TrEMBL record:
<dbReference type="Pfam" id="PF03291">
    <property type="entry name" value="mRNA_G-N7_MeTrfase"/>
</dbReference>
<dbReference type="GO" id="GO:0005634">
    <property type="term" value="C:nucleus"/>
</dbReference>
<feature type="site" description="mRNA cap binding">
    <location>
        <position position="149"/>
    </location>
</feature>
<keyword id="KW-0507">mRNA processing</keyword>
<comment type="similarity">
    <text>Belongs to the class I-like SAM-binding methyltransferase superfamily. mRNA cap 0 methyltransferase family.</text>
</comment>
<feature type="site" description="mRNA cap binding">
    <location>
        <position position="232"/>
    </location>
</feature>
<dbReference type="InterPro" id="IPR039753">
    <property type="entry name" value="RG7MT1"/>
</dbReference>
<feature type="binding site">
    <location>
        <position position="168"/>
    </location>
    <ligand>
        <name>S-adenosyl-L-methionine</name>
    </ligand>
</feature>
<feature type="binding site">
    <location>
        <position position="146"/>
    </location>
    <ligand>
        <name>S-adenosyl-L-methionine</name>
    </ligand>
</feature>
<keyword id="KW-0489">Methyltransferase</keyword>
<feature type="binding site">
    <location>
        <begin position="124"/>
        <end position="125"/>
    </location>
    <ligand>
        <name>mRNA</name>
    </ligand>
</feature>
<feature type="region of interest" description="Disordered">
    <location>
        <begin position="1"/>
        <end position="81"/>
    </location>
</feature>
<feature type="domain" description="MRNA cap 0 methyltransferase">
    <location>
        <begin position="115"/>
        <end position="397"/>
    </location>
</feature>
<keyword id="KW-0539">Nucleus</keyword>
<feature type="binding site">
    <location>
        <position position="228"/>
    </location>
    <ligand>
        <name>S-adenosyl-L-methionine</name>
    </ligand>
</feature>
<feature type="site" description="mRNA cap binding">
    <location>
        <position position="155"/>
    </location>
</feature>
<feature type="compositionally biased region" description="Basic and acidic residues">
    <location>
        <begin position="49"/>
        <end position="75"/>
    </location>
</feature>
Length: 428
């Protein structure tokens, strides 16, 4: 079937979720906002009445910021609050995710081109390339969380970065990343090595026995952190989500940038509510929620641990978790990370295909039609999958200190041996 054109992306602008700006970047379910705000107002009135009856000035019993910060730091480690305790089910599911990705083989170029979602993969690569071109600078130090098989290494090389650290939970993927970095992944890939030194780690970057910022203390600070199609794996419980954002903030320099892509919760919940049952999808993907969500209602006050099963042909077949963007934004702000950009993939395409340099980039990646066509070479089924995702950019508060970057020169390797890969343990 003919591929949707850029005009299709323009038409998608009418979708209610696509006009979000930083101030109104989606919530898990908009119809819950009214009740949440009403409950908050009611709570304020009750608290005011209590304080008045006790003869106390409202707000006099608020704890000082230092205590709040201490509690927040404790919450990262899951101490003293049952909300942050690890759960066995979540741990087992994350192990299942790791096993799935470790078992995936590193396909040849011919096999990749034969994938039923090859055009979606090219579109995803274009979106990641645009993010890197927009926010990476020459000489930057990069932290790549959930680096996988190193599919973005060539993008970072073209950005002329100065240093790279990659970490992934799947040992098999990190080994493939090592081979790709060394230039010997397969005979059809680029054979020359990358121009920047690197270090590779195997471990669950969202759940380490030692906090990630301690593990990478000698590598920090980083100018840019990237987490592509993986941040939702930290949302299985509040402890993991907070630990992830706290570590990212601690590892970024002031003014540093966090770029990423993840499922768009608003779109997924919207599609679930339109579906007859708890499963929906098309010929290349399916999403299935458990019976506990049969009423298709989700509490805004409990945005963590909302699991669904996701299948995408030739790519994914494992549990994932809803990330309510309003909760993501709010939690990130607690750790000094402010929102710069959030766009559903359809809106991302519509906006950045207005720029000639990015049209040409999409053409080079093979994501456009033949000749001078500006039509995106993607099937309707794959285009629907793209609608399930969003891109985001966060920036750490503070003034940049570029002088600190010089201290990283000379670290890492230009040729990574198997024994150079460091394995770090998750929490017991």
């Amino acid at each position: 079937m003919a591929a949707p054109a850029v005009q299709a992306a323009r038409a998608s602008k009418k979708e209610s979720l696509e006009e979000r700006d930083v101030a109104g970047a989606g919530s898990l379910e908009e119809d819950n906002d009214y009740w949440k705000k009403a409950a908050r107002r009611k709570g304020h009135r009750k608290r005011a009445a209590r304080e008045e009856s006790n003869g106390k000035r409202r707000g006099s019993e608020e704890r000082p910021p230092k205590d709040e910060q201490r509690d927040r730091e404790a919450s990262i480690r899951g101490l003293g609050d049952s909300r942050f305790l690890k759960d066995e089910e979540s741990t087992n599911l994350i192990a299942q995710v790791a096993d799935y990705y470790s078992a995936r083989t590193n396909n040849t170029s011919e096999q990749r081109e034969a994938s039923p979602i090859i055009r979606l993969k090219k579109l995803n690569n274009w979106i990641k390339s645009v993010l890197i071109q927009l926010y990476a600078r020459r000489g930057d130090s990069v932290l790549d969380l959930a680096c996988g098989k190193g599919g973005d290494l060539i993008k970072w090389d073209k950005a002329m970065i100065g240093y790279y650290v990659g970490i992934d939970i799947a040992a098999g993927s990190v080994e493939d990343c090592r081979k790709r970095y060394n230039g010997d992944a397969d005979r059809n890939q680029r054979s020359n090595k990358n121009s920047f030194p690197a270090r590779l780690f195997v471990g669950d970057c969202f759940d380490l026995k030692v906090p990630l910022d301690k593990v990478l203390e000698r590598d920090a600070p980083f100018d840019i952190c990237s987490c592509q199609f993986a941040m939702h794996y930290s949302w299985s419980n509040e402890a993991r989500a907070r630990r992830a954002l706290a570590s990212i903030s601690a590892l970024l320099r002031p003014g540093g940038t966090f770029i990423g892509t993840m499922p768009d919760a608003n779109v997924i919940i919207k599609k679930l509510r339109k579906a007859e049952g708890l499963k929906f999808g098309n010929r290349v993907y399916s999403i299935h929620f458990d019976e506990e969500f049969a009423d298709k209602k989700f509490k805004s006050s409990s945005p963590f641990g909302i699991k669904y099963n996701f299948h995408l042909e030739d790519a994914v077949d494992c549990p994932e978790w809803i990330v309510a963007f309003s909760a993501f934004k709010k939690t990130a702000e607690e750790y000094g990370l402010d929102l710069v950009l959030v766009k559903n993939f359809h809106k991302f395409v519509y906006d950045f295909m207005k720029k000639p340099e990015f049209v040409e980039l999409m053409r080079r990646l093979g994501a456009l039609g033949d000749g001078s066509s500006d039509e995106i070479n993607i099937s309707p089924d794959e285009w629907e999958v793209a609608y399930l995702y969003l891109a985001f950019v966060l920036r750490k508060r503070g003034q940049p200190d570029r002088a600190r970057a010089k201290k990283r020169v000379g670290r890492g390797h230009y040729d990574i041996a198997k024994e150079d890969i460091m394995v770090i343990r998750s929490e017991d």
